[in-house]
Amino acid sequence: MRERLGGSMRWVSALFALWTVIAAAGSAAAQGKAIRIGEINSYSGLATVYTFPYREGIHMAVKEINDAGGVLGRPLEFIFRDDKLKPDEAVKAARELVGQEKVDFLAGCISSGVGLAISAYAKEAKTLYFATHCQTSRLTWDEGHRYVAHTTNNVNQYIRALAKKAAATPYKKWAHISPDYEYGHNVWDEFIAYLKQLKPDVQVVQQNWPKLGETDHSSYITALLQSGAEGMLSVVWGAQEIAFVKQARPFGLFEKIHLVSASVGNPDELDPLGKEAPVGALTPGFAWYDEGMQKRHPKLAEWVKKYEVRTKKEPTLGASWGYASTYLIAEAIKRAKSADTEKVIAVLGEGYEMEFPWGKVIMRGCDQQAIPPQWTGVVKMNAQGKPVLADIEETHGRDLIKSCDEVAKLRAAAAEKKK
Amino acid sequence: MDLVTQLFPWITNGPLITVQVMSGLSVGMFLFLVSVGMSLIFGVTRIVNLAHGSFYMVGAYLMVTLVEILPERPWAFWVALLVAPLGVAVLGGVIEVGLLRRIYRRDPLMQLILTFGLILVISTLVLLAWGPDNKSVSRPEALAGSVSIAGQPFPSYYLLVLGLAPVVAVVLWLIFYRTRWGMLIRAATVDREMLGALGVNVSLLYTQVFVFGSWLAGFGGALAAPTIAVALGMDGDVLTTAFVVVVIGGLGSFAGTFIGALLVGLLQSFGILVFPAVSIVLLFAIMAIVLIVRPWGLLGRPEA
Questions:
Q1: Which chain B positions have a beta carbon within 8 Å of A208's beta carbon?
Q2: If exposure means fewest CB atoms within 10 Å of the residue's CB, which of A237, A361, B124, B286 is most exposed?
Q3: Which one of B26, B134, B273 has the shortest CB-CB distance to A223?
Q4: Contact between A215 and B234 using a beta-carbon 8 Å cutoff
Q5: How many CB atoms lie within 10 A of CB B102?
């Protein structure tokens, strides 16, 4: 009996030893219950051109984080849901993720309308929501609350960087073409307000509000041609801006009016435009291929290579956002030493900073808003006849963004309005 | 008069009005090409084909691929413009024979559900086949620039559209009113049972009409490709406008579609000048008015 017991004890301890060896062989790989993040974004239809690279960025960061031991020793896990670009679908997905999947946090959004809808739900459900891809400033400002954090640029910062560039031109008469929805209005309002602040004699001579997704812009183009404007802002984006630029070219619009665009410098527009790209346009963009950029940020080239090996594609701004958002979320949990919502919010309220291969990102405490570096440039043709963003000017969002006091006023005014 | 010129300063601007009319007309012509197939299919088969916009999208994507694989010669564009719609016609044929044929006698709701399902399926297949990136087709060299009209630049590619669409309209008219096949189509819109009783192979006729309607959608997409971005989501955008055109003109009416398309094109282009803030609403307001006054559309026939 004693003999047998001793024998089985030996077996148990041998097994235990073996198990420890196996566990150790798994090295730092994360153990324990996963920290689950419900990610809601548009993974079908027209937004996939942005969301697919963005999701690659998340996958890349999650793999790095989990290979290095996870967050607080727990692996990070994203559960993806398609919102079909609709606020009601997004809220439905959010309910399901919180109710059934029991996720610890919510993340996602590419449409500003969707972002605001998830944020409203998060407030009601007391679940922390990280807005990751949509850009309206209202998310953390007018409509801000403690259960929403914004891990990427907001309109205010990159549009101010762009308006600063526009203010340096000699043009005083301005027009614009903007899609008639949340984002379009937000961008135009921020642009013209800052431009007038920097250059009080600026006038708005004409405005165009096509619907989002309009395919024919000829009537707007002829109206612009007659407007007498010297400079114009284009807020239409993606397929719509490609169509606008292609249609405007034969009318000679950009020879008459200098184009400033909120998005034409991104590869999803520049690459298909090819020879028809609007050379000379001022625009923001993530020009990782730029020599100056790579010199200022020595780690950027390595990151780009890693991304290219992973995906067989060149990175986009969206890819960098997916990557950075994942790390910013992980960092907040790490600092809170817990995945508990209230503890993570406390960390966000204090604010923190992180270094990325493209520079410093500040998570500001007062509004839980990310403040990244800003780049604007000029569209040019490179030696191979391919359009690129050149003459990159780098500033940082902290020198441009509205102050915490201004944000407090915005929130107070919004609360007053609701009464 | 003073008040008018104050309110609408462009009214004395002849060149602006001319160019605005021209661009309105070319928008209308694009719309006609896209909508007429939808109207034709409804007229004969009584199916509201919600996947019509998807056929348009496939036409544009095929155009992208053909222009890419053909050698870079001036004729490549024109060959692609001919072949791309044929691809869509084949797709239409497969869908009619494989799916739609089975539900002609079912509840119209079932037909809507099926064609709506096709939108989702085709959009996913396009994403799988062509990927998420936006695509673009260049205009042919000869039509890349602009011509001067009333001293204003006007894109020469739009002149091609302004010329082609009426040709298509005339050819369609000749087919409908001067050939036996056209006569059968017109007969089918009036009374398909009787046509079948007279020994006409109605089921074959349906397939032919559906294939032809799909070809028209594909042609519209291929022709529009150089003026837009070929991208996911273009199916929904075009479907809404085509639907408005067809409803205004009268579902199934060929001349009605032509008038509806021109009306919508001009409305869009002048709506921007007159009421820039509400130019989107204008379109649907006109549709609502037409539906109230003539529920069957401008040139449609009331259901017997």
A1: 272, 276
A2: B124
A3: B273
A4: yes
A5: 11
Q: Which CATH superfamily is domain A157-293+375-399 in?
A: Response regulator (3.40.50.2300)
Q: What is the pLDDT of residues A81-106, one digit of tens each?
A: 999 989 999 999 999 999 999 999 99
Q: Say whether A157-293+375-399 and A35-156+298-372+402-418 share the same fold.
A: yes
Q: What is the pLDDT of residues B74-131, one digit of tens each?
A: 899 999 999 999 999 999 999 999 999 888 888 888 889 999 999 999 999 999 999 9
Q: What are phi and psi of A129, to 5 degrees?
A: -120, 125
Contact A250 B153 (CB under 8 A): yes
pLDDT in tens, B4-13: 666 666 666 7
Task: Measure the CA–CA gap between A398 and A371, rounded to whole angstroms.
Answer: 6
According to DSSP, residue A71 is labeled B
CATH topology of domain A35-156+298-372+402-418: Rossmann fold (3.40.50)
User: Contact, B146 vs B153, CB < 8 A?
Assistant: yes
Q: Which of A216, A240, A247 to substitute to test the interface with B, most B CBs within 10 Å? A: A216
